[in-house]
Design the sequence.
């Protein structure tokens, strides 16, 4: 919301988009709505100062969307790896209500991509999720700009928490110290696999289950092994890989620590940076690198989706 | 045209685009047109077998566009660094005729970007040029997907001929032998500067003249210096750089050989690969790498522009 405020003038002048926030929902605030506009910063401040009963409480997402007269939903619940809920329900409700749905949650892509994509098309609304992989870097939109191309595989480094931990271990910490320093592991190693599944589902149009991705975390790497690998100029990185097989809709995918030779750009991806390398028929190797994303990178992905929805 | 034929079915099925070639113009063929469709391969074969008088000769581009009833012009004349002609005239004529204009020629961007962009907008047609920088990698379209972002600078390796020459010199050839092996230097070092100017003009919205780019080629590097630099793990690369200054519309830009440390991904860009690193407010470092582009990479850029124009 900070970024939305910051760029309000640019959105109006350059993209012809004006907006007002007519609903906010969170565990703390409940379901707030006011079609004439809410002072979002005020609401957030009030809530962080003191939990309070919001002015309008509504029973659920459908009532709330109707009360807010929502044109666009920003969905930012946290990831449920196993079901994709409640994000799937929120997005479905928004599209059925007639609003565009923008999410930063990977769950709905893995669990309901085709349904939500088709529902959005039927309602002539957009289902957008550019914040889900590589922060806000427009990976999915980049592929929209590669018409009639065939994606045969990809590999990359997509989870920054594990990458920060490995870098800290190289610098002398144990796994537990490094993990603590990296703050939150999120959902313990699932993040990279969920991103890999999202890319396969959308860009290769093959729905894949998380269980079908061979998954190995960095937890069993000893600090000694990590430091020895770094010294040997073949550092460990948690690498995502996907590759088409010869079978129809066949994909093999792995997420696991690999030692990367110095000649591979992935050996240089440290800390919170990320990297993806696409193998396509026209461009045998097309790579995107995001170095040290700014604080607003993920929020920016949602803002950019908002512009896409509005134009 | 080969690629267009190859992807004909995909264009129809996935993008709802059907087409026929109704005009061809070249020095050898003259101005050929037939609104009912031309067998392009037949025409090209006939011409390579034996120069012949084409069936319909017309006096110039306007008559030819009218006779062909053109909806889209593919412009692929060679670069005139100093004037951008005749490509500028061709594109202007196409837009005035009411056709989309797609070019693989960088000259019109450097010499007439704003005029052609505004003319295209006035005619509600597209002026597209995704083949001009980094073969067909959709760099400009990538920025269309980064709304409200501020580009502060960029650097990269954009000319593959000089890069091939440097690689060959590292492997033991002299400059002249390497240049011969790399076949054509194009227009001797201008290519990278013209690409740099094109990126500045379009992505930073600052029209810049070629003379304003500080330009130094690789011609004066001795083979010994190139090999010593490589051995020292700081290889020479021809690097393009642009940076906003504090002044309004101020830009400094250079194209010159630089020694690149091994920790910089540019040190790994060899042969025909290319690389660009963008500095933006949201993403401090966002890089695109194109490794060993396929034969059809540039043609693909025009095909993708064709899809953009048609949708």
Sequence:
């Amino acid at each position: 919301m900070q970024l939305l405020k910051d760029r309000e003038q640019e959105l109006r002048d350059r993209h012809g988009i004006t907006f007002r926030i007519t609903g906010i929902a969170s565990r703390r605030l409940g379901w707030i709505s006011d079609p004439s506009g809410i002072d979002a910063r005020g609401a957030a401040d009030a809530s962080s100062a003191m939990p309070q009963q919001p002015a309008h409480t509504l029973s659920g997402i459908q009532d709330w969307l109707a009360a807010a007269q929502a044109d666009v939903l920003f969905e930012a619940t946290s990831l449920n790896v196993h079901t994709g809920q409640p994000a799937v329900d929120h997005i479905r409700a928004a599209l059925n209500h007639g609003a565009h749905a923008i999410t930063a949650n990977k769950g709905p892509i893995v669990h309901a991509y085709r349904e939500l994509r088709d529902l959005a098309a039927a309602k002539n609304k957009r289902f957008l999720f550019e914040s889900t992989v590589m922060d806000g870097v427009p990976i999915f939109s980049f592929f929209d700009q590669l018409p009639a191309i065939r994606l045969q595989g990809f590999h990359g480094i997509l989870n920054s928490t594990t990458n920060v931990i490995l870098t800290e271990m190289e610098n002398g910490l144990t796994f537990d110290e490094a993990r603590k320093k990296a703050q939150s592991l999120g959902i313990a190693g699932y993040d990279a696999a969920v991103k890999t599944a999202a890319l396969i589902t959308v860009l290769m149009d093959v729905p894949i289950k998380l269980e079908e991705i061979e998954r190995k975390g960095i937890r069993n790497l000893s600090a000694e092994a990590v430091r020895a690998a770094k010294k040997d100029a073949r550092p460990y990185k948690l690498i995502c890989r996907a590759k088409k097989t010869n079978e129809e809709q066949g994909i093999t995918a792995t997420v696991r620590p690999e030692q990367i030779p110095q000649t591979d750009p992935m050996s240089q991806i440290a800390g919170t940076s990320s990297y993806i390398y696409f193998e396509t028929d026209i461009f045998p190797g097309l790579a995107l690198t995001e170095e040290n994303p700014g604080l607003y990178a993920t929020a920016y992905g949602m803002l950019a989706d908002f512009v896409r929805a509005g134009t």
